[in-house]
């Protein structure tokens, strides 16, 4: 009976949605603590179920694939808050552009520095390089460069969770208070999960996070092959 449930095509989808709803309810119940972010709690719950049940990750991923496919449509919908903040975005285009280039390059460099120093092969470097791009983009980049897409997905999600949980506190400790800067940093470094956290702060913060996520995804598509080719040569 249990095996029949585990191999059902919709088991992964149901598990993911149920885990997130439960985690979100508990998060609200305990006062929205940063360390208890629902994405982190739901991820740990799903991992626990997979370990206990013995369900292979590849099977789970295929069962929940519809969520991955829906991510692209959700990103398109982020154009709505961007339009509402168009004036603020136009006023800040110069610092945003510089931040984008530096931030994207630093995100890729920090992902590659330690593995490269340890003598990692090209497949591992391709797996790690797009960690700060949103999952749909990062997986495609890794696959195109010969990386392991399953590991890329895990790393991208982990990066997003870290940014969502600790990003606002780190930015606050660094003296970053402007909601535009906070949002852009969260979106650039922590993609969709960081953007969701930014919208919990304010619409302006979330809008600039959306912009950072989208622009970083585009730039990462160009920079990752360039970085890997330079390292290969």
Give the integer mean of the pLDDT values: 87
Q: Which runs of at least 5 residues are low in confidence (pLDDT < 50)?
A: none
- Taking all Cα atoms into account, the compactness measure Rg is 18 Å
What class would the helix/strand composition place it in? mainly alpha
Describe how the helices and strands are arranged.
Elements: H1 2-6, H2 11-29, H3 38-53, H4 57-63, H5 65-77, H6 79-84, H7 86-91, H8 93-117, H9 122-128, H10 135-144, H11 149-173, H12 179-201, H13 203-232
Structure description:
Helices cover 82% and strands 0% of the residues. The protein is an all-alpha fold. It folds into 2 domains: 1-63, no CATH class; 72-232, no CATH class. It is globular and about 55 Å long.
Keywords:
mainly alpha; 2 domains
Short summary:
With 233 residues, the chain is mainly α. It has helices at residues 2-6, 11-29, 38-53, 57-63, 65-77, 79-84, 86-91, 93-117, 122-128, 135-144, 149-173, 179-201, 203-232. It is built from 13 helices and no strands.
